[in-house]
Every structure is written in structure tokens, then in C-alpha cells.
Write a structure and sequence with these properties.
Layout: H1 8-12, H2 17-22, H3 30-44, H4 59-68, E1 73-76, H5 83-89, E2 97-101, H6 116-125, E3 131-135, E4 140-144, H7 151-154, E5 156-158, H8 160-166, E6 176-178, H9 180-183, E7 187-192, H10 199-203, H11 206-210, E8 227-233, H12 236-239, H13 246-251, E9 254-257, H14 264-274, H15 279-284, E10 285-286, H16 289-303, H17 316-336, E11 342-343, H18 353-357, H19 364-369, H20 371-390, H21 407-414, E12 419-422, H22 427-435, H23 440-447, H24 453-469, E13 473-477, E14 481-486, H25 487-490, H26 497-506
Parallel strand pairs: 1-8, 1-9, 4-7, 7-8, 10-11
Antiparallel strand pairs: 2-3, 5-6, 12-14, 13-14
Helix pairs in contact: 14-16, 14-17, 16-17, 16-20, 20-24, 23-24
């Protein structure tokens, strides 16, 4: 009988060791399973890590090579680079079901039991030994490395309560309570943030990785554990809380370096895929591509900002949280104005500030500036970077010339007019305020003739923010919105941003 050709329904009907042997079962290590199933997927050109974007030509090929080599691996990279998600998806490369001896706590292979219980069951019952089936979703264990993790947590210890209840001496192997590692026999075991694990605990992993045996309280145990180890770590120079001890690093066969998305388009794919947007929000809020680009550009600006700690990185969670907050800001405005549907505005980006301040680690200069001001600065830089993708770059050389496309807009503000845009302005008033500026709507229509009326309004506000970033207009925060006015006139009055600085210092 061809065991591998059996469907899951037929496998689950096998209840004894004898039936399992008759079905043609052969023992296979977890690393062999991963390798064989990966080979099958590669030959069929099936995806191996679905939903992981931007790693198709870099990280994923490295992981595939490590699996083919049957290596334990370390995923090294800054936070928010999908390291744990990749490790969790490796279970998809396992067989759907594997047989285990019924009642065995170490997932014993019926043909190769390693625990005392498993060996005794096979010795006593032979082919009548009962078996269970373990689904691949149950063959994944994960431990976050923290300073309080102990040898007992990972490896095991003597359980005095077990000894007393079973009336066994401490010399009996059955008094051992096994830790996470032995219980992960024939599984994938992940240790997250490996450098945070105390050095003495890391030492306990030496023999497990190299020889496959464990030591518990002087017991002479030889457990040939079958485990696929996956470790994750931030670069050691960032954590400063510890490091991977050299002999352990030497025993980890492959170290794979992860990275952030290399383009805005890949970042958008990740953000939209991971963001938790409710169906009701999708009905109420319409989002354009430029607003998604702005979200991704904020993260890109943060990763190169002099105020943000480069070693800590800027997680993909920043853009995911920011996107969720942007949608919620627009939704809140629509609900306050009792509007059945709304379109995202540039002014809604005030809602993403909390997502930025909580996700970036600031250097000393950034702390002096204040997290809120740095966050506003990053949004402004994102607007400045993307502005020239949609409109001509404001040029000082033709400022006074008639060819300047922004002349009528700048002149209007120069005549003493100001524009206040409250965050919660209803749609009618919002459109009226923007259309009151001479030349603004014409400029948008000229460069984006196919834009619908909602996109036009977004781009009209985007022009004002862009001109402010290029120092053609003055932009200052109000308690409930943003004020645009002539740059020159603002120089003769106290900038409103001083009030913002005072608020930062109060915090």
C-alpha cells in the first residue's frame, strides 16, 4: 500500500501500529518532511510563503535553500520584518497528519518511540499499540525569549508532585516534567528574540542542536529529539540586552537577513493586506492611491530621519496602524456630519500622528524636538517628496513670472486672505472653502483632467500642503484644524507652532 497516497480521511481510520505498518508507513524526520514537501511545491511552481511580499528574490530563496539543506535557521532583522510570520507559515510545508503513540507526551513516532512511556507501550502491546494523529497546525511551538525564561521552561525539571502522586522515587525517569523543547519533538520550535535569552540558557541549547540529547537534573537521558529550530533576532548592536553566544551561533546552520520593503508599492500591498478595516468602514470611506502612497512615504522618511534611531528600525506596523487610523479619522468625520459616505482628505492625516509617535524610537535630538513635532515633520516630508510626482516643482526662479503655475494661488494669500480647514468640516463647506481660492481648481484640472470631483478636492488640499512644504505658503496648526496664509505676513507674527512646542514641553 502507498502510504503517501492515502487521503486524510483514510489515515484517520488507522488506529493501531499494525494497521499503520500495513499501510506502508515509514518514519521521516521533520526536516525531511519540510524538504520533501518544499521540493514538491517548487516542482509544481506553487507559492511557499503566501502573503509575504517583497522577499520573493531575497529572503524566501534563502529560506528555501536552508530547508533543502535541512538546516536550523536564524532570521535576523529589525522589528516588523515578518520574521515570526515566516516561521509560522513553515507549518504549511509539513505533512497534514503524522501518527503518534496515543497518550505519549513527546509526540512519539510509533516506529521510533523516544520516551519511556512510548517504549513501554510498544513493548507491551506490539502491533496493537494505539495511535493518534497529530495535525500540522499542532506541530508548532513558540517561546518569546525573556530574562525570566528558565531551564525548566525549555528543557524540563523533576516534578515532586508527580513523584508523590505516582509514588515514585526521584531516580525514576517518570517523575520528569518535560519542558517546551522535548514536547516539541517532531515539530517546529521557534525562539523569538534569541539575544534576550540569558547566556546560561543559551548554553543549554548546545547539545540539543548538535547531538540532539538533553540533560535534566543528572538523569542520564538520551532523547534523539527531532526538531526544526527557527530563531529570530534583532541585530545585536541594537538590543544591548544581550547577544547570541558564539558557540550557539556556530551551531545555527543558516542565518538569514530580512529587510524592509524596497518600494512603496510593496509596502502598500503589505499595509492593505494586514490592516484590519471593517466592512462598514469600507462602505463609508473611499481611499485614493495618493493617500496610501503618503502613508508608505512616512515610514520611508522615518527610516532615513536624523531624529529616528536607525538601529531600532521602523516597523511595518507603523504603516498598518497609520492606515487604520486614517480610515477611522475619515469615518469619524463622516459620522459627526451624518454623511453616508466620505472621501479621505489630507487633513485626515492628523489621525495618523498617534500611530507614528508610538512606533518610532527617537535619538537624543528627536527627544528634544518632541515626538509629536517629529511625527508632523515626517508627514510634511512625505508630502514634499510626493508633491512633484503630481504637480510641477515650485521654483523660486519663476516666482514672479506669469508662467508660475502657482502664482494666482500665492497672490491670493498675499492679498491678506487666509484659509482655515477644520478637521471635521462637512463636505459642502470643505468644497466651498477650497474652491474659493483662485486658480486652485484649474491647476488640478490641468494636471489631472481625469480626476473625479472628490479626487479633485483631495488634490486641491494636497497642493496647499505641498506649497507650504516648499515654503511658498505658511501652514500652522489650530486647535481643531489647519490654517494657511501668506508666508511673508506670518513672519511678522508669532508662529502658531510655538504653541505646539509648549504643548510638547508640557508633556
Amino acid at each position: 500500500m502507498n502510504y503517501k497516497a492515502l487521503t486524510p480521511d483514510k489515515l484517520l481510520k488507522i488506529k493501531t501500529l499494525g494497521e499503520l505498518k500495513a499501510a506502508g508507513y515509514r518514519s521521516q524526520s521533520v526536516k525531511e518532511e519540510l524538504r520533501d514537501n518544499l521540493i514538491d511545491k517548487l516542482r509544481k511552481k506553487e507559492p511557499t510563503f503566501e502573503g509575504i511580499w517583497g522577499y520573493e528574490d531575497t529572503v524566501i530563496p534563502d529560506i528555501q535553500r536552508a530547508i533543502l539543506s535541512m538546516h536550523n535557521m536564524n532570521l535576523l532583522g529589525l522589528r516588523g520584518q515578518a520574521k515570526t510570520r515566516i516561521a509560522r507559515q513553515m507549518t504549511e510545508l509539513l505533512n497534514e497528519y503524522i501518527p503518534v503513540i496515543k497518550g505519549a507526551e513527546l509526540n512519539d513516532d510509533p516506529l521510533m518511540p523516544i520516551s519511556k512511556f512510548g517504549r513501554e507501550q510498544v513493548l507491551a502491546n506490539g502491533d496493537n499499540t494505539e495511535i493518534d494523529w497529530l495535525h500540522r497546525s499542532e506541530r508548532y511551538a513558540e517561546k518569546l525569549a525573556t530574562p525570566d525564561v528558565s531551564i525548566a521552561d525549555l528543557i524540563g525539571d523533576v516534578d515532586p508532585i508527580k513523584a508523590a502522586s505516582l509514588k515514585l522515587p526521584y531516580s525514576d525517569e517518570r517523575v520528569i516534567h518535560y519542558g517546551l523543547v522535548p514536547r516539541s519533538h517532531r515539530c517546529i520550535f521557534v525562539i523569538n528574540e534569541l539575544p534576550d535569552l540569558q547566556a546560561r540558557i543559551q548554553v543549554a541549547l548546545f547539545n540539543i542542536l548538535q547531538e540532539g540529547d538533553i540533560q535534566i537534573r543528572g538523569f542520564k537521558l538520551r532523547l534523539p529529539l527531532d526538531i526544526q529550530f527557527v530563531f529570530t533576532a534583532n541585530p545585536e548592536d541594537y538590543t544591548n540586552r544581550g547577544s547570541i553566544v558564539t558557540p550557539l551561533k556556530d551551531r545555527i546552520d543558516s542565518q538569514i537577513i530580512t529587510h524592509y520593503p524596497k518600494s512603496r508599492d510593496i509596502g502598500k500591498q503589505i499595509t492593505v493586506q494586514e490592516a484590519r478595516i471593517k466592512a462598514l468602514q469600507k462602505e463609508i470611506v473611499v481611499v485614493n492611491e495618493l493617500s496610501q502612497d503618503l502613508i508608505e512615504q512616512v515610514a520611508i522618511e522615518a527610516r532615513s530621519s536624523e531624529y529616528v534611531d536607525e538601529k531600532s528600525g521602523v516597523s511595518a506596523r507603523l504603516t498598518i496602524s497609520a492606515y487604520e487610523n486614517l480610515i477611522s479619522a475619515a469615518e469619524r468625520r463622516a459620522l459627526l456630519n451624518n454623511e453616508p459616505q466620505t472621501y479621505v482628505r489630507v487633513s485626515d492625516f492628523i489621525g495618523i500622528i498617534p500611530a507614528i509617535t508610538g512606533k518610532v524610537e527617537l535619538v537624543y535630538e528627536g527627544e528634544q524636538e518632541g515626538a509629536g513635532l517629529v511625527a508632523h515633520s515626517l508627514v510634511g516630508k512625505a508630502v514634499r517628496t510626493l508633491f512633484t510626482d503630481y504637480f510641477p516643482k515650485p521654483d523660486d526662479k519663476n516666482k514672479e513670472q506669469k508662467s508660475n503655475p502657482y502664482k494666482s494661488i500665492i497672490d491670493w494669500f498675499g492679498e491678506g486672505y487666509t484659509l482655515d480647514l477644520p478637521h471635521d468640516l462637512n463636505q459642502t463647506e470643505y468644497a466651498k472653502a477650497l474652491k474659493a481660492i483662485p486658480g486652485l481648481q484649474e491647476l488640478v484640472k490641468k494636471h489631472h483632467p481625469k480626476a473625479n470631483k472628490h479626487e479633485q478636492l483631495f488634490l486641491m488640499e494636497f497642493v496647499l500642503h505641498g506649497l507650504a512644504e516648499y515654503s511658498k505658503l505658511s501652514k500652522s496648526p489650530l486647535d481643531t484644524g489647519t490654517r494657511f496664509k501668506d508666508l511673508l505676513s506670518s513672519m511678522f507674527s508669532m508662529p502658531d507652532f510655538d504653541d505646539f512646542d509648549e504643548d510638547e514641553n508640557d508633556n
